[in-house]
Amino acid sequence: MANQSSVGDVFAALADPTRRAVIRQLGAGPASVGSLAEPFAITLPSFMKHVRVLESSGLIHTRKSGRVRTCTLDRDRLSLVDDWLAEQREVWEQRTDRLERFVTDPQHQEDR
């Protein structure tokens, strides 16, 4: 089971549509903060708050070269979401399978 605190940090970071859009853009590869901020109608300082949230959650890493800060997606960190969802999907599939057996299997109902 994934570390619940880490999963919570990642989900909290992904709760904002701007940050999800940044993650989507970084899926294509590393990009500068300036290019990532272009599609959004917000100031660069406001955009940097989103970058800091993503960075503190571990979803992205940044490095600065001169005046350019480049962001890179941490795919391993993002996979925490996929792992958590897979765990939840398995739990619910088991529950629905038991319910289906209960409803459709007459033998099962007679045993009760």
Text of the CATH class? Mainly Alpha
| Helix content, binned percent | 55-70%
- Element order: H for helix, E for strand: HHEHHEEHH
Instruction: State the secondary-structure class.
Output: alpha+beta
Give the amount of beta strand, in percent.
5-15%
What separation lies between the terminal Cα atoms?
A: 34 Å
Biggest sheet details: 3 strands, antiparallel
Which strand order do you get reading across the main beta sheet? 1-3-2
- What is the level-2 CATH architecture name? Orthogonal Bundle
Q: Give the CATH topology.
A: Arc Repressor Mutant, subunit A
- Principal-axis shape equals elongated
Report the strand count. Answer: 3
Low-confidence stretches: none
Mean pLDDT: 92
What is the CATH homology-level superfamily? Answer: Winged helix-like DNA-binding domain superfamily/Winged helix DNA-binding domain
Number of helices: 6
Rounded Rg: 21 Å
Count structural domains.
Answer: 1
